[in-house]
Fold:
Amino acid sequence: MTELYNTGNELEELSYTTSENITDADTSAHSPVSEPQTPATPIVFGFDYTGVSSQVAQEAEAAANRIRDRHRTSIIDTGHDLCAVKEKLEHGLFGNWLRFHFDMSERTAQNYMNAAAAFSSAPRVIDVLPPTTIYKLSAKGAPEEIRQSVIDDVAKGLPVNQKEINSRIAAAQEEERQRREDERAAKQEQRAWQKHEQALRAEGKTDDEIKNERKRWDKKKAREERDADQKALEAKQREEAALQLEKRMETTAARVAEILKKRLGNDYEKLRDVLVQIDYQAFKTALLSA
Structure:
């Protein structure tokens, strides 16, 4: 809370009891007339450099580009080098080599090698996604159609959403896991019935009795599957509702920030720096009780 006290003076500089600090762009007509000036052509960046000079913004963007280039080259070149060494070392020696030189696990090395194999021909993907998502996309078990769709979107200059990609990968992995689980369950079910049938025959049950028992067995199994499907559907609906709520909250938060920035003008950053330090629940309570 010490930081909050340090920002108290900034709050005191703002007067929110009147509308003097809350101005829209269209109120500028009431301000004193100044000499007409030819506006400079603005340089547009993806990052918001409000309050920073144009020179500093350009320097920061140039640094970001250099960092991205090094980062992209680092992942791809490291992956290629690791692949080359692994091919030449005897089986089992590669892991020891990794630990000796880099204290690196084989799993981490595999991430680099997979990324190099998947994105050498599409390096811009590494510019726009964090390493964790890159490694998920390039993993051998990742669906090829998802990986290719991301490559295509980046090539077209379309925005890519990290959360959406991770969700698609997780969904595909869950689908594959469920498929394997269904196959395993089917085999177990078949073995269980064969054992049960053998027991029935050992008891001297007739073919008709065994057929009736099989019908009862199948009905019970179908009922269990319906119950499981219903529970899975309900869980999926809850998850989708939570994701939709999260997106709505993100959209609302962005809209509120946009409104505050427009209405407060130069005072926006002062208020923002204070708000980000306040406990959300306490701020919410204060808003409702104000």
In short: Residues 1-42 have pLDDT under 50 and may be disordered. The first helix runs from residue 2 to 6. The radius of gyration is 31 Å.
